[in-house]
Design brief:
By secondary structure, the protein is an alpha/beta fold. It has two domains: about 230 residues, Vaccinia Virus protein VP39 (Rossmann fold, 3-Layer(aba) Sandwich); about 80 residues, no CATH class. The structure holds S-adenosylmethionine (SAM). The site of S-adenosylmethionine has 21 residues, from helix 1.
Amino acid sequence: MRLEHLKYLRCPKSGVELHLFDAVMENDHVKSGQLLTRSGFTYPIVNFIPRFVDADNYAANFGFEWQVHARTQFDADANHKMSEERVFGVSGWDRELEGQVILEAGSGSGRFTEHLLGTGAMVVSFDYSQAVEPNYASNGGHDNLLLVQANIYEMPFVQASFDKVFCFGVLQHTPDPHASFLALTRMLKPGAKLATDIYLKTFKRYYLNTRYWVRPFTRTMDPQKLYRLCKGWINLMWPLARVIRRIPRVGEAINWRLLIADYSTQMPDADDATLKEWAYLDTFDMLSPRFDIPQTPETFQRWHEEAGLENIDVRLGPNGVVGTANRPED
Ligand SMILES: C[S@@+](CC[C@H](N)C(=O)[O-])C[C@H]1O[C@@H](n2cnc3c(N)ncnc32)[C@H](O)[C@@H]1O
């Protein structure tokens, strides 16, 4: 964390300003220290990252996943532009946003963070899990990044202070996606823009989807054990999966039903090793989340309307249902 970024932080319990004590600096960044309120709330800065939550929480599986696969989904490492295209294609935001402040919720390993930073905006990013560690390793060198470990239900920021709020791949993994969505809308300045997505709920995708039958048994498993099982399953099935995916129209879908995350259509230029790496990651990602609560487009639309947003555009997108909108000007 940089000293000048203290102004973006507030006590998540009381909403008041925080004061920095016992700071240990390294290359203009606060490596460790304590953030205190006058009334006695204390939050440590550990490894350059302010921590507003306990290390052990329901998102620990994600922390594990993103530490094992810190760079797997980064565009540069996978040699494609999937994340970049998702950020700008879905949000419709400009690629030059210098002078603006973006809030990114649930940043995981930071594959979207790097593209938000690329706009020149100040990016305030957070995740509930230890995924903040790999994100910091990839993006922590940017002077315009403030990365913290925090909970979407108790965000340590000034309400109604952001020009843009971004949250992809997260809402369905929170215990109450509607409450999480509303919490994000409260961070928008008048006139500010929101871009979010959520898994799609349809009869086929939900009730006929193997992952939702298996997940009740796997979501409480020790993550290391589950990851070993997923990897073993992919290794065993991979030769067959490569044959199945050649079946016209339905091959890839069959693989997903067999719990093999198959990205061969989405990443046609990827080599076999890359596809396998993504399969390890995303098969674990299907089976490990404590919460996975998809929504219909109608429900997502209603959430936007009830929040009083305008210019609402809810539609199907790369990862389910996507929504863009803005808070009305005062
Ligand atoms: C599937 S990952 C998506 C990460 C990233 N947005 C991406 O798409 O690559 C979901 C992320 O949401 C985070 N998350 C879950 N519940 C959260 C909460 N209550 N507050 C903040 N982040 C949360 C998890 O820790 C995890 O990193």
